[in-house]
Amino acid sequence: SDSHFPVPLSPSHVDYSLHYPQLFPSSDQIDSSRKIQFVDIGCGFGGLLISLSTLFPETLMIGMELRDKVTEYVKERISGLRVANPGQYQNVSVVRTNSMKYIPNYFEKGQLSKMFFLFPDPHFKEKNHRRRVISPHLLDEYAYALQVGGIIYTITDVEELGEWMKSCLENHPMFEALLEKELEADPVVNLLSTATEEGQKVARNGGQTFQAVYRRIAPAS
Ligand code: SAM
Asked: What is the pTM of this model?
């Protein structure tokens, strides 16, 4: 349960020296201008983060994952890559947490530029929809943590969930869909279906995918 993992009191309590030791050698000399900008929610085995790490070497990124063993696997995967590729993969980390509860403990207002929700658990039954990681209520939290212009990327192989995520985003006042030409120009969009372990499984089985990519907009004045 939640009592088994520590939760930072606030975003300023997140220990960057623990996550990015080469970039933040000591916890009391934190360069507060440099903050985590990408978060992969329910990162699973970490495939997306590993790809993003070298694509955006200057950007700090983190995965949030509920399962303890999976989180430990990702930690070891990252340390292995750091050892094998000196100077690389220093910008990527993972934390075991429940993203549905603790996003505000990790990220302050407008801190994030990208949030990823790749192949989240579908929670089919109506009464379980409140467990979905995209919901009208959680989108309020994500809109708070995202900077204006920041992007939410979602993908699933479950058509019903794809429609749900899209309609939640479509109906939220703080998000607008990216245009087709913007999706084509964004190097990250290709990774949605190819970079994660779940995406690769779906592709191997020839499954269809449904994506929704939305931008955080400024409030109407
Ligand atoms: N995104 C990965 C991929 O595409 O391979 C993993 C997809 S897997 C189907 C969904 C993941 O979300 C699981 O690893 C699960 O443990 C994690 N998860 C579910 N609820 C979560 C929560 N509330 N907070 C953090 N992670 C969660």
From this structure: 0.96
| Gap from CA of 191 to ligand 1 centroid (Å) | 17
The model's pLDDT over 131-165, given as tens digits with 9 standing for 90+, comes to: 999 999 999 999 999 999 999 999 999 999 999 99
Edge to edge, the sheet with strand 92-96 lists 92-96, 60-65, 36-41, 112-118, 146-156, 210-216, 175-177
Each residue of 15-66: pLDDT tens digit? 999 999 999 987 666 666 799 999 999 999 999 999 999 999 999 999 999 9
DSSP classification of residue 217:
-
* pLDDT at residue 130 in the model: 87
Q: 196 a known binding residue?
A: yes
Tokens describing residue 205: 């089985």
* Nearest-10 crossing angle of helices 197-204, 47-55: 110
Domains in the chain: boundaries: 2-216
- 121, 140, 157, 186: the catalytic one is 121
Question: 128: which 2 tokens?
Answer: 């379980």
Residue 121 falls in the annotated catalytic set = yes
Calpha distance 219→173 (Å, rounded)? 8
ipTM of model: 0.99
Distance CA 57, CA 68 (A): 27
Q: Is 50 in the pocket of ligand 1 (CB under 6 A)?
A: no
CATH of the domain spanning 2-216 = 3.40.50.150
